[in-house]
Amino acid sequence: MSTVLQQQFNKVGKVETGSVALPAIMRSGAGGPESFQMGSMPQAKQHITSGQMHRGHMPPLTSAQQALTGTINSSMQAVQAAQASLDDFDTLPPLGTDAASQAWRKNKMDESKHEIHSQVDAITAGTASMVNLTAGDPAETDYTAVGCAVTTISSNLTEMSKGVKLLAALMEDEGGNGQQLLGAAKNLACAVSDMLKTAQPANTEPRQNLLQAAGNVGQASGELLSHIGETDTDPQFQDMLMQLAKAVANAAAALVLKAKNVAQKTEDSAQQNRVIAAATQCALSTSQLVACTRVVAPTISSPVCQEQLIEAGKLVAKSVEGCVEASQGATNDEGLLKQVGVAATGVTQALNELLQHIKQYASGGHPIGRHGEATDRILDVTENIFSSMGDAGEMVRQARILAQATSDLVNAIKMDAEGESDLENSRKLLSAAKLLADATAKMVEAAKGAAANPDSEEQQQKLREAAEGLRMATNAAAQNAIKKRLVNKLENAAKQAAAAATQTIAAAQHAASSNRNQAAQQQLVQSCKVVAEQIPQLVQGVRGSQSQPDSPSAQLALISASQNFLQPGAKMVTASKATVPTISDQASAMQLSQCAKNLASALAELRTASQKAQEACGPLEIDNALSMVRNLEKDIKDAKASAEEGKLKPLPGETLEKCSQDLGTSTKAVSSAIAQLLSEATQGNENYTGMAARDVAQALKSLASGARGVAATTDDPQARNAMLDCAGDVMDKAIAKPGDAESQQRLAQVAKAVSQALNRCVNCLPGQRDVDNAIRTVGEASKTLLADSFPSSGRSFQEVQAQLNEVAAGLNQSANEVVQASRGTTQDLARSTSKFGQDFSNFLEAGVDMAGTSQDQTQVVSNLKTISMSSSKLLLAAKALSTDPSSPNLKNQLAAAARAVTDSINQLITMCTQQAPGQKECDNALRELESVRGMLENPTEAVSELSYFDCIDSVMENSKTLTESALQMLYTAKEAGGNPKAAHMQEALEESVQMMKEAVDDLGATLAEAASAAGAVGGMVDSINDAINKMEDTPSLEPEGTFVDYQTTMVKTAKAIAVTVQEMVTKSNTNPDDLGGLANQLTNEFGNLANEAKYAAITAENDEIGSHIKKQVGELGFSCTGLVTKAGALQCSPNDSFTKKELIESARKVSEKVSHVLASLQAGNRGTQACITAASAVSGIIADLDTTIMFATAGTLNRENAETFADHRECILKTAKALVEDTKLLVSGAGASQEKLAQAAQSSVTTITKLADVVKLGAASLGSEDPETQVVLINAVKDVAKALGNLISTTKAAAGKPHDDPSMLQLKNSAKVMVTNVTSLLKTVKAVEDEATKGTRALEATIEHIKQELTVSNYTLEMEMFCYQYLCQDLERMYLY
């Protein structure tokens, strides 16, 4: 009998022993002796063909496996349909030869290539995900996640086929080979179909078939990308990637051999089997890593592909650990274990080299050079110095790092200068190196000062200023390199954001069929549509920047496109997250959820990169805007030349109605942008003016596109030329540089000229001329109402009335037709307005007849004038709506204008038909019904700009109010129903409501804790991101406290976050199961911090401080999301050493960001911080005075030389005067700015220090023979110091508070004590001074006056100010005598 080891799926939990002579299975005999070689994997000795495997151990499919089978089957159908659609490429409409047509071709090709590339990225990432997810025991496989990967592959392949057909058509149009592209796409679809077949849960083929099929998908993906020229990864990088993966496989093969040696020498069969199973798993995971590398190598630039390869690497690391542990449990042979350990180390080293290779590409793909590394470190460290204000030790530590970094940069620049052949360039490099060296020397000196005086804010400020100077020198020396790297980072971030958005759109479209909530799906589709319109601009920005790396215009276009992409992208993320719970298919829901998270992360990167790039590129917005407008003017001229030659063709998708709408919308955008430009230019802020100029240029670009489209879709040559002429006139008028002093004076006239040119451009739109003609018709006809009298026509009243009724009905009908035509074509609007003008003329003629016949002629004429006015408003509203047909507000205005026409007609008819009771009511009702017929026939037409959910909220709010009112009435009636003693029922009801609320809160908390305990951190990440986004929202409630209140709370919360983070690091090593609860705690703490930050920013002294606080809190939030994600990953895989290291690194980043938040809070309250520092300094002075009193009491406080007290009296008095002035500034500083409060606090410390010193010298001059007087004098100044310390503390507490706050009363009392103690000091000086001096008399008079003022019962702050001023005046008089 022989023993066979077979993988089982039946959860027995042990290796199965059985006979090889099983029925219906034939196995070949032994193949002779086997040989093993280092560096190679042993080949499989058994091949199993589907259908022939013994299925006795295969259990029936589970529900999850059945669901996956259904997903795979439907996905295969979608793949086959996509494959069938690739037989022919799209048919392009005829295109022109002008600049716009050529740009459309180029942009469409770029956009198609981007979309195809991002979709191929998703296909390869999904394929690698399937390989990783199906690696273990089928009973432990997450089939929902596998289904998500399958739907990702099929949905992206479906969308990719559409882009391939368009790109193939464009390639054929330009003489390329589109058929080859179609063939490559078909090959990819075929490879995907084959792989999906092997991935069926019921499939019994060996796993190697799945790995081979996945590798074929990767190969086909690379071939497709090469056909479209999108192989953006270096072939050498890909070759090295494969070599490193094979190196891991070779190292793993060596480990397997060493493990085999252990198994052969192990007598315990159970341990032997365990070693064999572990070695087998190690070999399988390594084979899987190589397969994943083959799959994702062509698309390794994609972060999701990098993540999958890293995940495969983690599985290898886990299997290596298992192999080592199994070997250690099987033998005690030190030699064998050492061999296993060395082999395992070899696998780990090879794996680390592979992961580092991946991370190198993820960080930018290319080394940044010796300049770049030092420059980045300088910029990062200076930022840390700025954030560490208040912590001298940390600032000095960072300064040491900064000095080393600048030294490295100086040496690098010198080396470049020595190797430079151009003497001028060499001189510039050496000059830059010298500037850097000088700035470094200044910074080092400032650091020494800060180290020697850690409590000196002045020294810290000097160090900050020196660091700023060094940063400026670095920017000047490496400006181009810095800008290039930042722009490169922005390019990568924009590419990833566009790719993530493309994936999210594909996921949203795929989820539509399983979405139970169509309203939510519609909102998602709308947000996707807006983003889809922005993606081309982002892609064009990236391509333009890459093709023109030295063009400021291209860089600014990329920055602008990136910033414009952020808001619609964030809205799509929100809509996607809101839609996920309504999707019934779990795989589709997971796909959309993952795509939304990836997009949110990509948007965060894009936001940061665009901000940094904008700072680096400088104020070039105005020049770039001018250049853009000049190019637009040139394009308009080019289009006009093509039109004259008959070659101007509309671009695909352009129609007359669409282009007219775009033109009308863009005219409003241009007008709004110009108004903003005028405002910013007047204020003189170059940065904001540049941004406004950029907005004007973008709006003009849309205007030029719309004008060209209208001209291309218009058959009338005259109208076509007029449109292009007017558009060119707009561009010509718009070219005026706001920053120029001369043009600044005529900027308003230029804006007016642009506005007039815009009006002429709009008037060229089809239908506008007809509306203008109708308006003129109404105006001309209405002139007849200006006559003094209206003679009778000679007809009877009944005839005139009948005619008036008839034409009134016609005019009312025409008004309704105008409203209806607003929803149709421009031709419909032209016909309806022309008819309205004619009907109005007929109506007015009949109305004038009625005025001549009626007895109340004045009233009739008045009503006719009202009808004329409302008719003009109707036509103006129709004209406005024709330029922006999608605006609900304009539609409302048009409908209201039509109702006004109806109402004014009703008033006239009512007055003329008063003799027939009931007739006027019937006629009015009929006309009212006619006016609303249009709304009833279009029930889905938007009547406001509120969204569906806003309307639902409004209805629900009203329903809620109604329900609560009815409930309250019910209970009130019940109480009043004959039981006057039932008042306690209301208390019982309130108690029940409170208990219900607490139960709901407890349930929510329990669910959150359960989710966190299971490692589900998605909700926490969403909560943190929501908290970050809500910081930018306007608070619904006014702040209840001051900045100090919110600062105190934020400091406590930030420190609590730091404690939680440290505890997470501890638990990661001791008890990873607790990480979920700690992550939930961290999420709640950050939510509280973000909420407080919102109010702290509002109550901060200025917007800059508030923005800085929110920025630091936002960065802390992004770090927290990373830590929470790592905590969830580690909780799911507690023994994963890589994840544990990543968690510790994430925790370090969070702790660093916490320190930045604390530093920003200190910087935001400089005055309060200065008060704290000042109070500490005063405490030191008091301690020093106590020491001096001890010396005086002991009789050891001796005079120096032969000095007398008179030598110090004048200095004491001058310093006391200065202290009084400081006291006054302190008291007033409580209500002033933080800057003034800080100055007052610092000045008071300086003065009290000097006063204490001179009083000590004066006391010493009295001699040690009079210790009692010395002690009295020093105690007097000590009391002044104590009072000052108390005054500083109360000033800090009262800062920013209203006048009626209790802290202001304490401030008044402290000021009173301060004045009293200064008075006591002066009395003491008087007591030890010669009685005959004039100074004594002046002092005595001053003291007496202060004493009288202090006896006043109503002591107010104004009296205090009076006392201070009076005291100062007396001291000045004393100095004169």
In short:
The chain is an all-alpha fold.
Question: In percent terms, what proportion of residues is strand?
Answer: under 5%
* Number of extended strands: 0
Distance between the termini: 126 Å
> Low-confidence spans: pLDDT under 50, at least 5 residues?
1-56, 365-369, 959-966, 969-982, 1331-1338, 1347-1377
Computed over alpha carbons, the radius of gyration is 41 Å
- Mean pLDDT across residues: 78
- Helix percent reads over 70%
Task: Give the overall shape.
Answer: globular
What class, by secondary structure content? Answer: mainly alpha
Please tally the helical runs, counting DSSP H or I stretches of 4 or more residues: 43
State the major sheet: none
Domain Talin IBS2B: 268-358, 617-768
Coiled coil: 596-649
Domain Vinculin-binding site-containing: 1042-1166
GO molecular function: actin filament binding; integrin binding; structural constituent of cytoskeleton
Q: What does this molecule look like?
A:
The protein has 1377 residues and is mainly α. The chain has 43 helices and no strands. The chain is globular and about 130 Å long.
